[in-house]
Design brief:
homodimer, 4 strands, 17% strand
Chain lengths: 126, 126
């Protein structure tokens, strides 16, 4: 069994904003043993490459037997949720033997408040 | 001294998305003693009310002697940062005696990875 995580961000025209997802994927990789999740890939909903179908395809090419789409969004509005479900459906039509689920966005997790409490002691200009 | 936090989200046309900020402000309120920060208000960058100038004004009306603008954004791109700085400058021109700082956005805080590790065990459809 080779489970895969596809980390998904919105995507931006600014390269610096897109690089956050690469950095995040390294941070996630450091926290999840390769034995548990051998494959971690990234994809952008729009405006940047790789696209979600490309990211899913890379997971398959690397031997994924199951894929979790993990949205790096504070919330997933109707538009984002619909788009993710469309990519999921397209994928399942071609790869019906590979389960592909969508995980919830970050949302109002209590831990987010911990981060905000840290940020409130900082100044954007420092 | 009455310090204030102005929690800022992007704002959406969907009421449900905007309600997240209200829920977040309650979660923050539960974590910060009233003695430390008596005033916690919310504002939206666009598309919803109250606006940032309105939120800042409410802080002043409630007696704020210092204000921290706390962005509830995963990242603050050039557009968001510029807008926040414009509101800050406008505010300081009128209320030069009330320090108003902009805190950093949530960003790639290590704790965000903790939240993602929780979310990856969940299914959006459960």
């Amino acid at each position: 069994m080779s489970s895969a995580i596809l980390l998904i961000a919105h995507g931006s025209r600014r390269a610096a904003a897109n690089e956050d997802l690469l950095r995040l994927s390294k941070m996630v990789r450091e926290r999840i043993p390769v034995e548990d999740v051998p494959i971690i890939e990234i994809a952008y909903l729009e405006l940047a490459a790789p696209s979600i179908p490309e990211g899913l395809q890379t997971c398959v090419a690397r031997g994924a037997t199951s894929i979790r789409m993990l949205p790096y969004f504070l919330s997933a509005g109707a538009h984002v949720t619909r788009d993710l479900r469309e990519f999921q459906t397209q994928f399942e039509e071609i790869h019906s033997q590979i389960p592909c689920i969508i995980c919830p966005p970050i949302g109002l997790h209590p831990t987010i408040v911990d981060v905000l409490l840290t940020r409130m002691e900082q100044n954007l200009d420092d």
